[in-house]
Amino acid sequence: MKARPIGIPTVYTTQRGSEPYTSATGGRLVNKAIPELSAFAQMEEPHEIIEELKPESKEIVIVKPKPSAFFGTQLTSILLFHRIDTIIVTGAVTSGCIRATVDSAAALNFRVIVPIECVADRFQTSHEVSLFDMDCFLADVVPVQEVFDHLDNIDHDIYS
């Protein structure tokens, strides 16, 4: 967790709160023809933030109703409040939630960085195609070490 010690605001997302999805809240995620996807959407464990990345009390956790972290959430206003113009998007699924979030962020004129080693997908092909496509016009898809090097060389006082 490179951002935390230097004071860069971190926002976590999850796609399931305490209430299970219904057709009204989950839409196609719930009634999709693939039974495994519907069952996955209802499970709590896959939507939990892993222990190694657990948010601290001052960090924000957003429960998002759809794949994009921006859709139906207060993420834009949080970023604007902190005067953030660049976001680093990590997580899963590259061709789903990551791509949707990157699309939304780019549409809102945020600069978007996707560290290659910090995103994953169910299938390697959709992962690689999504990374290629995002890198073409929506985001800077770069090795995580490049992100770390940049963070090591910025003025940390601006986040205090």
Description:
The protein has helices at residues 23-26, 28-31, 35-42, 75-81, 94-107, 124-137, 144-152, and strands spanning 11-14, 60-63, 86-88, 91-92, 111-115, 119-120, 140-142. It contains 7 helices and 7 strands; from the N terminus they run E-H-H-H-E-H-E-E-H-E-E-H-E-H. The relative contact order is 0.14. By secondary structure, it is α/β, with parallel strands linked by helices. The model has no long low-confidence stretch (mean pLDDT 84). The protein folds into 2 domains: 10-61, no CATH class; 64-160, Rossmann fold (3-Layer(aba) Sandwich), CATH 3.40.50. A 3-stranded parallel β-sheet has the order 3-5-7. A two-stranded parallel sheet has the order 1-2. It has a two-stranded parallel sheet with strand order 4-6. The two termini are 17 Å apart. Helix 5 (94-107) packs parallel to helix 6.
